[in-house]
Amino acid sequence: MSNAAYMRPNTRKAYTSFVDKLNKKLQKIAQAWNPRDRDLFLIRLERYFADFYEPLASLYQSRPDFEEQFMALASLIIAAYAERPEPLKKLDVEREITPDWFQRESMVGGIYYVDLFAGTLKGVREKMPYLQELGANYIHLMPLLKPREGANDGGYAVEDYCAVNPELGNMDDLENLATELHSNNMSLCIDLVVNHTAKEHEWARRAMEGDPKYLDYYFTYDESTLPDAYEKTLPEVFPDFAPGNFTWYPNMAGKGKWVWTTFNEFQWDLNYTNLAVFCEMLSYMFFLANKGVDILRLDAVPFMWKRMGTNCQNQPEVHELLQAFHSLMRIVAPSVIFKAEAIVAPQDLIHYLGTGRHTGKECELAYNNSLMVLLWSTLASRKVTIMTHTLLNMPATPVGTTWVTYVRLHDDIGWAITDENAQAVGENGFLHRNFLNEFYSGKFPGSFSRGELFQYNPANGDGRMSGMTASLAGLEKAVEKGNPRDIDLAIRRILLLYSIIFTYGGIPLIYMGDELGLCNDKSYLKNPLKANDNRWMHRPAMPWKVAARRHDAETVTGRIFKEMKRMITIRQQTRQLHGASTAYPLWTDNEHVFAYVRQHPAHGNMVALCNFSEFPVTVGANILMEQKLSWPIRDISQPDNPPLRIEWGRLALQPYQFLWLISEDELNQG
Ligand code: GLC
C-alpha cells in the first residue's frame, strides 16, 4: 500500500521534495528518534501530505515565498514531534485505533471558568471529585492563556499563547492537570483563539512600531477607503460596545493606520493570507498539544478569511485552512481533535465538520448551535414545528464527527432561526425572533423568563439574549414568588432541555452551575471591566456552599443535581447514544410533542418523546411501530417503571415530561 502512489502528480512531486528535505533534517537527529517513532511519523506524513499540501498550495502558491515557507514546515513538524512526550505518543496510537473515542456515549462534558470554579488550575485538580461525581469526563476550561491586562473579552484577547494566565497558574500546572485527567480517563479541552490576538501580543506590538513583517500579520490600512468598502457588507458583532469592524490608531507605524478589529478594539484580526501566520498558529497548536490538551476549541473560526462584498464569514478558504491545520495535527499529535466554534446559520454550520472534498478532514466537533436555539424557541412557543422542520432539514453529521450539544454556555443566545425555516411551517421568522426576545427578557405577558437583551438594535429589532438556563427557564421568578407549582414546572423545563442534549447526538456539555440550577448573577455590574457586557450575568462563580446542598433532595439544588446525574449515568450506559448513530426528528400528531429517533445499527432504535407544554398531553403511539420498536417497550429514563402502557392508541405525557423509549429485547442484550 502506498499513499504516495495515490497522490495527484503535482502533489506527489511536492511530496518527494518535501520528504527529501525532511529526511536530510531527520538524518541529523536520527539517533535521537527510535525507529518506531520515525516509522509512525513517516507513515502519517505520507498519509496526510496531500491533505495539507493541496489546501496550502491553493491558498498561497501565488506568493513568491511559498516554496521556502512551505519547506519550513518540515522543521516545524519534526521539532514538534520530537518534543511530544512519550505518554502522549502512546495516547496518539490508542486513539488512532479507537477513532470513535470522542463519539462514545460515555462522553459527557462540563464547561468551567478556572477562576470562577476553583480559583486556579491546581484548584481544578482538587475539585476533580466533583467533576467525577457528576460524570463529566470532557473538561472544557474557558480561556486560560495569558490575556491582555484590563478588559479582555473573558480571556479571548490573548497576549501570550505559550503562557498560562498567571492568576490561574502556569504551564506546568496545565500539564499536570492534563496528566491527571488522562489517568482518570478524562480529557481536556481549551480555547485557542485563532482569529485574532490581543493588541498587546508581541506581533501586534511590533506591527504597531511599524515592523513590515508584523504589519503583514494583521489587516492594516493607511486610509479608510478599503475599510469603508468592507463595512458596506459587514455585520457588527458587538454593535453596543464595539461598533464597526476597524479601528484607527493615530500613532501606528509612525503615521497612523486602520486595523481590522471584528470584535473589540483590543482584538486584532489575523491575516491568514500570509502563510507565516498559518505557521505561527500551527506551532501554538503543537505547543499546546504537547502539554496534553486533547481538544482545541478553535475560537471564531468563521471569521478567518475576508472577502470584499461578503459578510467575511464562512468563506471557502476557511475550510482550506482548517483542513491544513487538521492534517498537520494528524501527523504530529493525532490524539488531538478540533472543535469549531462556528455559531452560524444551519446551512453553514455542517461544513465545519468537513463536507464535500473536506469530508473527514476538518473539525471532529462543532457546536450544535441550531439545536440550542431551537430548544429555547420551542420552550417559549410550546410548538415544536419550527424545531422539527429545521432539524429534519439539517444534514447528518459526516462520518467520524459529532456535535457538541448544549443548552447554555458563556455567550449570548442569537436567534439563528432562518426566515425560510419559519415560513415553511407558517410562521414569520422576524416576528418569531422578536417574540423570543420579548419572551426571554420577561416582557411578554405570562413569560416565566428573566433574561436580558444583549446588543439590541432598535433600528431593526435584532437582539440576542443573556441569562442562565435556570433564569431563562423560570426558576428565578418561581423561587422569588415561592410558588411550589411554578418551581416544579421550572425544574421540569431545565431537565427537559438537558434530557434532549444528553440524547440527541454528540457530546453533551453541561455549563457550570446548570447542574445546581444557578440563576443570574448580577455582581458583574460592580466590576468596571465587565459592567458593559451583560454576558457576565450568566458567568457566575461556583457557590460551593450551594453545591454542598446537592445531596439534599428537599432543596431545589438537590432535585436538579440528582436528576442531572441520573440522566448522565443512564446516557453513559446506553449504546444507542453512541455519536455515530444517526439522530433525526419525527413528526408527531401533537404540536407540543417533540420526537426524535436514534438509530444504532447494532443496538436498534431509541425514540424520545418530549412534551414542551405545561399541560398533560397525549400522542399517537404508532410512531413507535413506525420506528420498529417492539413490545414491551421501556422508558429507560425511569428504569424502575413498568413497561410502557398505551390507552386508546395514545401515550400520555405529563407537563414537560420526556420519555426515552427502547424495546425491552434490546435492553436485555446489554
Ligand atoms: C467567541 C467567544 C466569545 C468571544 C468571541 C471573540 O465567539 O465564544 O465569547 O467574545 O469569540 O473572541
Automatic annotation (TrEMBL):
Pfam families: Alpha-amylase (PF00128). Residues 96-555 form the Glycosyl hydrolase family 13 catalytic domain. Gene3D superfamilies: 1.10.1740.10, Glycosidases, Golgi alpha-mannosidase II, Oligo-1,6-glucosidase, Domain 2. SUPFAM superfamilies: (Trans)glycosidases (SSF51445), Glycosyl hydrolase domain (SSF51011). InterPro entries: Amylosucrase (IPR044077), GH (IPR017853), GH13_cat_dom (IPR006047), Glyco_hydro_b (IPR013780), O16G_dom_2 (IPR045857). This is Alpha-amylase family protein. The lineage of its organism: Bacteria, Bacillati, Chloroflexota, Chloroflexia, Candidatus Chloroheliales.
